[in-house]
C-alpha cells in the first residue's frame, strides 16, 4: 500500500476541465488499496464563482470514496486575467505550504496547472526528501504565450519555472505524446515524462432520456441541425467564431442551431454579442447523468479553439465526444494537439479557427452526408474504447506512482 498526497486546485464537484480526472485519480488509487490525501481548492470553475456550499470556513474536510479531501480557502478572481490567475495561484500555494501534509507520505503528486503551486510543492517535497511527481494537464507556459495574455518576459519566466519543476521532480505524466515534444523544446528532460491519456469520465447512466425528449426539452426543431459545444467558455475556446456563424445563419435563414452548453469567464460577453440571435442558444451545464443524453441528441459535436492555439492543451471534452457516437467538427489550427488527435482517431472533420463561413460550410457538408457522419461516429467510439479506458489509465497511474515512490505494488487493477 502506498501513502499518496495529491495536490491540485481543481477537484469535484467541478464537472469540466481538470477536476474530473484528478477526482477519478484519487478515487481510483483508493480502490486499488492505497491511502490518499487530497489537498485542493474551493469549487469555482468554470464559472469563477465559489460554490455556495463552501462559503465561510478556511478549510473543509470531506471523504470521497475513501479519499480524504482537504479544501483550502483561496482567492478567486472575478475576471481571471493573467494577473488575477497568478494571484489565485499564489493564494492557493500559500495555503498548501502552510498546512501539514499527511505524515510520511510515500509520494506527493501535484497537478499543473496551477504552475506556481506545482513549483513550490516540488521544492517542499524535495526538501522533505519525499518523491514527487507532476501531472501536466495543460502546458502552462505555452498557454500564456499562445493566448497572448502576458509580456514576453513573463512567458519566459513561466517556461523556466515549468521546466525547472518537472526536471526536479522524480517524474511527470503528460496526456498526449505531443506534449513531450513541446516540453522538450523548453528544456524538460524527455526521460522525466510518461504519457498517460485522459479517459472518458462521464458514463451512461441506464437508458437515459431519449433523443426526441431531449430535443423537445431544449426546443430543438426536428429538422434543424444542432451543433453542440460543451464545457468551458473561456479565452482559449474563441467562441466569438460561433456567435458570428449564428449571425450569418440568421441572415440566411438557415436550418441550424448553435448550442453553447457550459459556463466560463467569457459567457456574459458571448451572450451580449449573441443577443437576439435566433440560431444561438446558451444552456447551463447538466448533471453527469444527463450529459451523454444531450450529446446523443445533437447532430454535430463542436470543438472550437482560439486562433494560434497549438501546443498548450487538449480539450477534455473529446473523451466524451468520441464515446457519444456523434461526428466531431474541430475548428483549430492544423498543427494543434487537437488536430493531431482528430487525425489519429479519424473521428472528425477539421477546419481552420476563426472562420465562421468555413464552420457553416463544414456543418452543412456533414449534414448532407449521412454515410460520412456514421463513419466518423463509429471511428470515434472505436478510438475511445482503445485509448480512453478509465481502468487501464488508472492502472498505469498506479504503476507510475509505484515506480516514483519505490513502493512495490502486488498487482495493477481494482482490488
UniProtKB/TrEMBL annotation:
<dbReference type="InterPro" id="IPR028098">
    <property type="entry name" value="Glyco_trans_4-like_N"/>
</dbReference>
<feature type="domain" description="Glycosyltransferase subfamily 4-like N-terminal">
    <location>
        <begin position="16"/>
        <end position="199"/>
    </location>
</feature>
<feature type="domain" description="Glycosyl transferase family 1">
    <location>
        <begin position="213"/>
        <end position="381"/>
    </location>
</feature>
<keyword id="KW-0808">Transferase</keyword>
<protein>
    <submittedName>
        <fullName>Glycosyltransferase family 4 protein</fullName>
    </submittedName>
</protein>
<dbReference type="InterPro" id="IPR001296">
    <property type="entry name" value="Glyco_trans_1"/>
</dbReference>
<dbReference type="Pfam" id="PF13579">
    <property type="entry name" value="Glyco_trans_4_4"/>
</dbReference>
<dbReference type="Pfam" id="PF00534">
    <property type="entry name" value="Glycos_transf_1"/>
</dbReference>
<keyword id="KW-0328">Glycosyltransferase</keyword>
Amino acid at each position: 500500500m502506498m501513502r499518496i498526497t495529491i495536490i491540485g486546485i481543481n477537484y469535484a464537484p467541478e464537472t469540466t476541465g481538470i477536476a474530473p480526472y484528478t477526482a477519478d485519480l484519487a478515487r481510483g488509487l483508493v480502490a486499488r488499496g492505497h491511502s490518499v490525501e487530497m489537498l485542493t481548492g474551493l469549487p469555482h470553475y468554470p464559472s469563477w464563482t465559489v460554490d455556495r456550499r463552501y462559503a465561510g470556513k478556511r478549510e473543509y474536510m470531506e471523504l470521497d470514496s475513501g479519499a480524504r479531501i482537504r479544501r483550502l480557502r483561496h482567492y478567486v478572481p472575478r475576471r481571471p486575467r493573467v494577473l488575477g490567475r497568478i494571484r489565485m495561484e499564489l493564494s492557493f500555494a500559500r495555503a498548501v505550504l502552510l498546512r501539514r501534509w499527511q505524515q510520511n507520505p510515500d509520494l506527493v503528486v501535484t497537478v499543473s496547472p496551477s504552475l506556481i503551486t506545482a513549483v513550490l510543492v516540488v521544492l517542499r517535497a524535495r526538501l522533505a526528501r519525499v518523491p514527487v511527481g507532476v501531472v501536466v494537464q495543460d502546458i502552462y507556459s505555452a498557454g500564456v504565450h499562445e493566448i497572448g495574455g502576458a509580456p514576453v518576459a513573463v512567458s519566459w519566466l513561466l517556461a523556466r519555472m515549468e521546466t525547472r519543476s518537472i526536471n526536479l521532480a522524480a517524474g511527470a505524466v503528460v496526456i498526449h505524446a505531443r506534449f513531450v515534444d513541446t516540453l522538450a523544446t523548453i528544456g524538460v528532460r524527455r526521460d522525466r515524462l510518461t504519457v498517460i491519456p485522459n479517459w472518458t469520465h462521464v458514463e451512461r447512466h441506464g437508458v437515459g432520456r431519449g433523443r426526441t425528449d431531449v430535443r423537445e426539452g431544449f426546443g430543438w426543431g426536428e429538422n434543424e441541425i444542432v451543433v453542440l459545444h460543451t464545457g468551458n467558455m473561456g479565452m482559449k475556446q474563441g467562441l466569438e467564431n460561433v456567435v458570428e456563424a449564428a449571425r450569418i445563419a440568421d441572415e440566411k435563414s438557415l436550418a441550424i442551431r448553435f448550442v453553447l452548453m457550459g459556463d466560463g469567464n467569457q459567457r456574459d460577453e458571448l451572450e451580449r454579442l449573441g443577443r437576439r440571435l435566433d440560431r444561438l442558444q446558451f444552456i447551463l451545464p447538466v448533471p453527469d447523468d444527463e450529459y451523454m443524453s444531450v450529446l446523443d441528441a445533437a447532430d454535430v459535436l463542436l470543438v472550437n479553439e482560439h486562433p494560434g492555439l497549438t501546443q498548450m492543451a487538449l480539450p477534455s471534452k473529446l473523451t466524451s465526444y468520441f464515446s457519444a457516437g456523434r461526428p466531431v467538427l474541430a475548428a483549430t489550427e492544423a498543427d494543434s494537439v487537437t488536430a493531431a488527435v482528430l487525425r489519429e482517431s479519424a473521428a472528425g472533420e477539421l477546419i481552420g479557427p476563426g472562420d465562421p463561413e468555413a464552420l457553416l460550410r463544414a456543418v452543412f457538408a456533414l449534414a448532407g452526408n449521412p454515410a460520412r457522419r456514421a463513419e466518423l461516429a463509429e471511428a470515434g467510439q472505436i478510438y475511445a474504447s482503445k485509448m480512453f479506458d478509465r481502468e487501464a489509465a488508472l492502472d498505469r497511474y498506479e504503476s507510475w506512482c509505484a515506480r516514483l515512490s519505490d513502493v512495490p505494488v502486488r498487482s495493477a487493477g481494482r482490488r
